Amino acid sequence: MSLVGIAKDALAKRAAIRGDYLEAVMGHVVRQSDTHVFLPRDEYEALCERFRSYPRGPGTELKALLKTIGIVAKPNCSCNKRAKIMDEKGCDWCEEHIDEIDGWLAEEAKKRKLPYLSLAGKTLIRLAIRRARKKGTKT
User: Fold this and answer.
1) pLDDT of 52-85, one tens digit each?
2) Residues 105, 121 contacting (CB under 8 angstroms)
3) Computed from CA positions of residues 86, 92, 93, 96, in that sequence, does the dihedral angle turn out positive or negative?
4) Who's near 108: CB < 8 A, 6+ residues apart?
5) Residue 28 pLDDT more than 60?
6) Sheet harboring 31-32: ordered strands across?
7) Widest CA span of the chain, in angstroms?
8) Where do the structural domains in the chain lie, given as residue ranges?
9) How far apart are alpha carbons 91 and 95 in whole angstroms?
10) Which helix (H) or strand (E) holds 127?
11) CA angle at 88 for the pair 84 and 90, rounded to the nearest 5°
């Protein structure tokens, strides 16, 4: 059986923008080292195909926008879970629940002891929705 190694730091970067990517990869890991995970080549190729056209919904887009200003999901925060909710529920739901999503951002900013402006948060949320729609995300 031929194995493919993926650097753990690269895996973490991809997982930050691809909802369930980490879980999908880890479900096929047959060996690990301090720096890499190893999985069968055929499983790796199937995962590449599956995630090549991964839908970048509004939650994924919002995470990408936040990352550009240095705010990334941490293992103990609810960012990935909430981004997944946004991606699954879609753009229309996010528009209808912009105040709730803004509350999520405010809550996380408070936990991280960062300043937060609701106007800026809602602007980022709207931009994420527009980007998701532009990339063809359903509703």
Assistant:
1) 665 679 999 999 999 999 998 877 778 989 998 9
2) yes
3) positive
4) 77, 78, 79
5) yes
6) 3-7, 36-40, 31-32
7) 54
8) 3-52, 58-134
9) 6
10) helix 118-134
11) 115
Query: What one-letter code names the amino acid at 82?
Result: R
Strands (E), the chain: 3-7, 31-32, 36-40
Is the CB of residue 6 less than 8 Å from the CB of residue 37? yes
Residue 5: what are its φ and ψ, rounded to 5°? -100, 140
Spatial CB neighbours of 59, under 8 Å, sequence gap ≥ 6: 19, 82, 83, 84, 85, 86, 87, 94, 128
What distance, in Å, lies between the first and last C-alpha atoms of the chain?
Answer: 42
In angstroms, the CA 104 to CA 78 distance is 9
H-type helices in 6-78, by residue range?
8-17, 21-26, 41-52, 58-68
Q: Amino acid identity of 57?
A: G
pTM of the complete model beyond 0.90:
no
